[in-house]
Amino acid sequence: MLFTARFPAASSVLRFSVPLLAAAALLSACSPALDWRDVRPKDVNILLTYPCKPDQIAQDVVLADQKIKMSMTGCVADKMTFALAHAHLPNPALAAKALAQLHQAAVDNVHGKVTASSAAVPKNATPGLPDSLDLKIDGQTPDGKPVRERVLLFSQGSDVYQVTAFAPTDVYKDEAAQTFAESVNLSPSP
After folding, report:
1. Which of 55, 86, 114, 183 could cross-link 49 (Cys pair, CB 3.0–4.6 Å)?
2. Among candidates 29, 19, 17, which has minimal Cα distance to 80?
3. Distance set, CA 13 to CA 6, 38, 103, 106, 144 (Å)
């Protein structure tokens, strides 16, 4: 999800990730390690369990050929970044294209390789979309240091979500990433 400037082939959709995650990291730099709490981000139909107090910012992006506002709610704990990206599309028919772009950008942005992939359909999410996935990705920073990320991609109607746990490989904690990914609790569609 990071380092789009290094990989020009990455979809422009996530070029906002670097400033958003950097802001989350700076705002949360003093967070205690893995202090889990339930959080419902403002104006987002989801409840997640974060290991730190997240901050939320938003930026205009192009996703599924639409200029939209995407929010990022994230924090850093124990040298890992935990983040939710959310966007509301003008039409639910665009969700499959948006998820495909998010999937590709998650891999490209870390010049990565998917090491595990399975269907991800949290309760109350839209079923049957090919890029509604739970991904494990190994990649590298622009200076060649290994990184690992766990990415959950799914939608609910016109809303698309990307849940990410990210860290340098040597400090990545599978248990923390698993806890975060399994905490997804979508409310029923309004």
Report:
1. 183
2. 29
3. 15, 28, 11, 10, 23
- Structure-block tokens of residue 84: 């939710």
Q: Return the bridge partners of 160, or none.
A: 87, 155
- Which are the contacts of 100, defined by CB distance < 8 A and separation ≥ 6? 130, 131
* 100/84 Cα distance (integer angstroms): 17
Tokens representing 74? 């994230």
For residue range 98-156, what is the model confidence (pLDDT) as tens digits?
999 999 999 999 999 999 999 988 999 999 999 999 999 999 999 999 999 999 999 99
Instruction: Work out whether the CA dihedral 151, 16, 102, 55 comes out positive or negative.
Output: positive
- Residue 63 DSSP class: E
What global pTM score does this model have? 0.84
Token readout for 167 is: 């860290």
**Residue at token pair 């016109």:** 158
Rounded to the nearest 5 degrees, what angle is found at the Cα of 48, between the Cα atoms of 65 and 181? 80
The tokens of 7 are what? 């990989």
HSE-up of residue 76 (Cα within 13 Å, Cβ side)? 16
